[in-house]
Fold:
Amino acid sequence: MSSLTLAARDSATMLRRNLLHVRRYPSMTLNLLLTPVVLLLLFVYVFGDVMSAGIAGGADRSAYLAYLVPGIMLLTIGGTTIGSAVSVAMDMTEGITARFRTMAIHRGSVLIGHVAGSVLQCMMSVVVVGAVAVAIGFRATDATALEWLAAAGLLALVSLALTWVAVGMGLTSPNAEAAGNNALPLMVLPLLSSAFVPVDAMPGWFQPVARYQPFTPAIETLRGLLLGTEIGHNGWLAVAWCLALAALGYTWSKSLFNRPPK
Structure:
């Protein structure tokens, strides 16, 4: 077989291994998935009327639900990738990665398996959160099939970019607990974006923090695709952020993985 065929076969094997881990140990996935669901229900049913009055000028919980869902979807992706960092760190500390290095397999397949498995988990988690949102009243009836496809592509691209960064965090962490802590910014940054309130409604000193980060343009682009709001320059900014983070995460992870063991 050609080297490309071998790489694809080994990567598929590693992907299957990571998906089996998720099925056998679902507690981490459920815990990470619970956070965005709880935040969605909390902000809609506890703060929904007040937040809608401040944003839309009227106490309409459904209006705030529509505003909130795109940000919660990005928060879901950020939280799910924390599990990838923990999984990679566990493989490193428990010695299975060292064992893989001695086997006649494609070296890159180990990381590719983690990344592909994480992207699939992210997309499945987004579907679950989206189903909860639909169940409590979220609708995107004005979005065309092409806009839905673009939204799915954006979510997959964000998942890929954040996963490569999370893999690097897992490789550089001394244990699984440290990996979870190191990857925590992937869930904190969406909280500091336009996920819950518009950037213009924030204090002046805080607006640059929310505006000049990767999650805000991605959220605004997703919001525009699903709800028909203005996207402006956020579309290409979101894609640029994703490509830059994916390239940085890939280069960093590959360098760490190929580093000789101490």
